[in-house]
Amino acid sequence: MLVRVLLVSLLVAVAAFLTFPYWASCNMKYEACLAICDVRHFNANIDKAACKGGCTSKKIACLTKQVLEPSSPEK
C-alpha cells in the first residue's frame, strides 16, 4: 500500500513538473527560474547574474504576452 501511495505521489509530481509552463503564472515561473539560477550557478556570480537577467527577460515576455493576448468574447 505504501509503495502505491509513493508511486502515485511521484507520478503527480512528475506531471506537475512537466506541465508547469502551461499553468503557472508569470511570477511563479520567474521565481522558479531564479531558484534554478541560484542552484546552477551557486559559485559563479557573473553566470548567475546573466541567468537572472534571462529570467527577467522571460518574465517581461510572459507579461507582455498576457497583456497582448485577446480576451475571449463574452456571450
Structure description:
The protein is mostly helical. The chain has a domain at about 20-70. It contains three helices and no strands. Helix 2 runs antiparallel to helix 3. The radius of gyration is 17 Å and the shape is flat.
Entry summary:
With 75 residues, the chain is mainly α.
**Percent of residues in beta strands:** under 5%
Let me know the average pLDDT: 87
Overall 3D shape: flat
Q: Give the helix/strand class.
A: mainly alpha
Largest sheet, if any?
none
- SSE order, as H and E? HHH
Number of strands: 0
Keywords:
75 residues, mainly alpha, 81% helix, flat
Topology:
Layout: H1 2-23, H2 26-40, H3 45-68
